[in-house]
Amino acid sequence: LRCSWFLSVLYRFLSGRTKITAEPGENVTLPCRTKNNHPVLVVEWIRNDMGELKHVALYRDGRFDKNGQDPTYENRVDLQDREMKDGDVSLVLMNVTTNHTGTYECRVIQRGNKRRKRSNIKGDPICIISLDVAPRPPSGESVFLCIRTSSSFLVLHDRWMLVFFLKMLIRL
């Protein structure tokens, strides 16, 4: 457990991104909050490998805009707080599958910005989240991996940690 926590903290520190792991069938919250408390007019969540014309979720005028939504996310998304109090624009993905693995980005338009409402919001994302959806290996299956650093050893003792660690290394 300590090793998993350490790897999670190390990954976040090195990448500057939030990393979330889940199992198929779970509901997952992608946490995101604006930096100020200006009212949010539009929230757009995309997955960066889907192309510019599709989105995961687009929320404006108090409802989700399904026009341009990738079919994989139809009836599977909601905002954690539709009133977006205190700038909370976190997205809930329901009943995730391995197809939902990817890097998600959130962009917003807030009151006071001079941008007009449109389906694709340009500019830097306010949150970037990597989601990995994978089934947990059967219990009793063990894999040991020892990694030597200049001053110590890191031991990964099951396949779930090994997969997480290897994916983290590949992305660095």
From TrEMBL:
Cellular compartments annotated: Cell membrane
Membrane topology: Single-pass type I membrane protein
Entry keyword set: Cell membrane, Disulfide bond, Glycoprotein, Immunoglobulin domain, Membrane, Receptor, Signal, Transmembrane, Transmembrane helix
Coiled coil: none
GO CC terms: external side of plasma membrane
Main location: membrane
Ig-like domain: residues covered: 22-122
Top-level taxon: Eukaryota
Any one biological process term the GO annotation gives: immune response
PANTHER family assigned: FIBRONECTIN TYPE-III DOMAIN-CONTAINING PROTEIN (PTHR25466:SF9), T-LYMPHOCYTE ACTIVATION ANTIGEN (PTHR25466)
Name of the molecule in the record: Ig-like domain-containing protein
Organism: Cyprinodon variegatus (Sheepshead minnow)
